[in-house]
Amino acid sequence: MAFLLGLFLGVVVGVGLVMAFVRFENYRSKRRSELAATVAAFSKMTVEDTRKILPTQFYPSWVVFAQRQKLNWLNLELTKIWPYVNEASSELIRTNVEPILEQYRSAILASLKFSKLTLGTVAPQFTGVSIVEDDSSGITMELELQWDGNPNIVLDIQTTLGVALPIQVKNIGFTGVFRFIFKPLVEEFPCFGAVSYSLREKKKLDFTLKVVGGEISSIPGISDAIERTIRDAIEDTLTWPVRKIVSILPGDYSDLELKPVGMLEVKLVQARALSNKDIIGKSDPFAVLFVRPLRDRMKTSKTINNDLNPIWNEHYEFIVEDVSTQHLTVKIYDDEGIQPAEFIGCAQVRLKDLQPGKVKDIWLKLVKDLEVQRDRKDRGQVHLELLYCPFGMENEFPNPFVGQNFLMTSLEKALKSGVNGTDAAVTDRTATLRKKDVIMRGVLSVTVISAEDLPAMDVMGKADPFVVLSLKKLETKNKTRVVNDSLNPIWNQTFDFLVEDGLHDLLILEVYDHDTFGKDYIGSCIMTLTRVILEGEFTDNFPLEGAKSGRLNLHLKWTPQPIYRDL
């Protein structure tokens, strides 16, 4: 009996082991098939499919999707023919570049010409090529180029003081992206009518200036004047959106030329919490704004002395040539008097992010470098109001005036209109058009409704808040009643201000805690009148600046009383 039982158990265990082994092998085979199918599916995925599955912020630092294809074959060929390119292009560059440098030379320079010009033995390297898919009527190609060359370039400089200097340009380092546009496409070989080229992006441009047989620093201002001349010439003649057009087939290609497409209106309102660059006292900040970094297109604000929270409330206009690629750049400096200004921080706004005809109120965080943002230091913020107005779309924008029919081509021309319009007393539309200036005079009604979540100012954890209201250009002030023992006071008080120039005034609301022997500052709100002038009336809440917490609930209403003044 024991023998039969042992035999039975042995057979059962053996059959169980065989079945388990077969089942395990089948499972492994299935897993391998599924893994093979998964690998095959991954092999068919595109870069876009990968980005949909895994967002960019989760990529490891070593994962990079290259936008440009390598051009090793072209670099090898260029290295071979570079000695011949050097000989052929040196005289061509001299002939074409000298007039440009002469056009942009600084006042301290009487003349600027090449005495020697060779490109050296080191050929530039094309580090990538890409096709930009943004226009069906042409082909846009971008070539990235890097050149750390050893050219022999000597400039003959004549200063206005009569001093002649031979200046050597050394250690040239350049990295940039050139854009080539083959447009329009035609049914005749080579299948495009013209080629436009431009320096799309200037990533690096470094060079050293040295007086042959001397030291350039011995003559103050010469080095800066030469460097500014070179950079201005490159920026204004070659850097995008400027483009050079080469006709391949006969035809009219004027539509490819650079043309203004709109106007950018900028109101530099204020900055706050700027980093202090002075050891004694506070910084004296001023701002530099530009769309294109050219001397005649850069705007500089007034200097606010000894203030880390400056209020400028200044208005500027900038011409826009390509809204899809251009930016507004703001740089804040500390004025050091006769010494060079010290950099505080900078910020940038992409123009394509602006909605045409709509004012954008924005606070921008200042950074040290716009390209490599590794600096974590808090440098402060800058407050801007922006309005982009494309040419030819003026009548599509809402009019802030009731009963008036002004064209809105910019913020200043919409609100402080500088457009050509027909005089109200003249009904004949063929009459002579006159330019009119509109001063935005009116009544501003401010209702201080309430405040929320004010910080505790008293020992008992409460506060006795009240609000002081004023306009920057008026000396008169109004204040609400005091609400005792409350961090969420309700006032519902209305105050009227007669505003003489609404476009260039500021509404300032300061919240204080009332004490028996004085008052303690809690926080403030500073705002322009642009929004209320455009909308006429609105209710909103505003955070208190300079306070740990707290918001003001306000109702603003604008009753216009424009004054017309013929120019």
Please characterize this protein's 3D structure:
- With 567 residues, this protein is α+β, with helices and mostly antiparallel strands.
- The protein folds into 3 domains: 72-256; 262-390, C2 domain (Immunoglobulin-like, Sandwich), CATH 2.60.40.150; 442-560, Sandwich (Immunoglobulin-like), CATH 2.60.40.150.
- Helices cover 19% and strands 39% of the residues.
- It is built from 6 helices and 26 strands.
- It has helices spanning 2-43, 47-53, 72-104, 222-237, 411-415, 530-535, and strands at residues 109-118, 125-132, 139-148, 152-159, 164-182, 194-211, 244-247, 262-272, 285-290, 299-300, 311-320, 327-334, 342-350, 360-365, 381-390, 420-421, 434-439, 442-452, 465-471, 477-479, 490-499, 506-515, 518-528, 537-543, 551-560, 563-566.
- Strands 1, 2, 3, 4, 5, 6 and 7 form a 7-stranded antiparallel sheet that branches. A 4-stranded antiparallel sheet has the order 11-8-15-14, with no helix packed on it. A 4-stranded antiparallel sheet has the order 10-9-12-13, with no helix packed on it.
- Strand 22 and strand 23 (518-528) form a beta hairpin.
- Helix 3 (72-104) crosses helix 4.
- The longest helix is centred in the N-terminal third of the chain and has 42 residues, at 2-43.
- The model is unreliable at 399-437 (pLDDT under 50).
- Residues 243-364, 425-542 form the C2 domain.
- It comes from Elaeis guineensis var. tenera.
- It is found in: Membrane.
- This is Synaptotagmin-5.
- Its main location: membrane.
Give the terminus-to-terminus CA distance.
Answer: 126 Å
Residues in β-strands, percent: 35-45%
Return the average pLDDT rounded to an integer. 81
Identify the overall geometry. flat
